[in-house]
Amino acid sequence: MKNQAWIIQHASRGTYSPACLKLEQSEVQSPRAGELLLRTILLSLDPTSRNWLKLDPSSNVFGLAVGSVMIGAAVSEVVESGSPDFTTGDLVVGMSGWERISRVPAERVRKVEPGVPLEANLTVFSHIGLAAVTGLIGVGNLRPTDTVVVSGAGGATGAIAVQVAVAHGARVIGIAGGPEKCRLVADELGAESAIDYKSADVEAELRRLCPGGVDLFFDNVGGGILDAVLMNLALHARIAVCGQMALYNSEDRHDGQGVRNLMELVFRRVRMEGFIAGEPAERLPEYWAELTRLFHEGKITSRPQIIPGIEKAPEALQLLFDGANTGKLIIEVSPP
Question: From CA 194, how far away is CA 180, in angstroms rounded?
C-alpha cells in the first residue's frame, strides 16, 4: 500500500514558509502489537504546528526532527489494529501524521465523540475546546460578573472562548482582525462588542468599552495586543495565556514584540498564567463535561473551515498567520 506524507526538510525559523516540508511517497507497514494503522480523514492545522516546525527543543514535545513526518490532531479510520481496544472500521481522534496512512501507538488516540459531526472532534471536542475551558474556568476562574476580553476572537480557540464566556453570563469583548471577523464575533458568537485591531486603537477602544477595567483576559496573541490590554485591567484581574500568535513567526521566541507595560501586573495586582489545554489531569473530566453540556445545549458551535486535499496542508497553514482563516482550519485528506 502506497502512502503520501509531509516530511520536515529543515527547521522553519523566522517567517513561516511551506518549503520546510516536502510531500513524499512511502510503503505502508503493518502495525505491531499495541499499534494502529489509520486512514486519515480530517487533519487539524493549528498555530502550534508552526511552533513545532521550529524544532526548538524547549517546545518540541513530540521530538520532531529533519526527516520526521509532520504531525497533528486528526480524525481517522482504523484500517488494521494491533490493539484489543480497537477494531477495523473504528473512527478515532488523536495525534497522527500529516499523511494519508499513519501507524501510531493505540494510546495516542480515542474513539470519536458519539452523536456529533466528525469535524466537531477537531473543534469543540479537542485541544481547541479544552483550551477555552481550561483558560477561562481552570486558570481564569470565570465569573458571571466578569468583563472578559478575548484576543484572536475570530480564530478557532478564541471563538469557542467567546461562546463559553457568554454562556456563563459574562460581558465579553472580542478583538479580531477585519470587519467580517468582528461581525462574526459580535453578531454570531454573542460578544457585546468587537474591536478590529487592524483599524482601531485597541487601547483606546478598551478604555471606552471597559471603563471599570478588564477582569479576565484570554490571550491568544500577545505582543502589542497584550500591551493594550495591560493598560486597561481591573484590580486583581486574571490573564490566561493560551498562545502568542504575535511571536510565532519571530526568529527569537524571547522577542516581546513591543510589550512594554508588564509593570501593570504589579500596579493592578494581576495574576498572569500560561497553561496547557486539559491540565491538570484531575480536572479533565470537569472540562470535558462542560464542553459536552454547552454543545448539546446549543451554546457553543463547531465552526470548521475545511480545505480538501492533503497536498494543500503546508500552504493552508499560512492562512492562520495571515488572519485569513474563517474558522477552525481542517484539511480533508479523504472522505469519511
Answer: 11
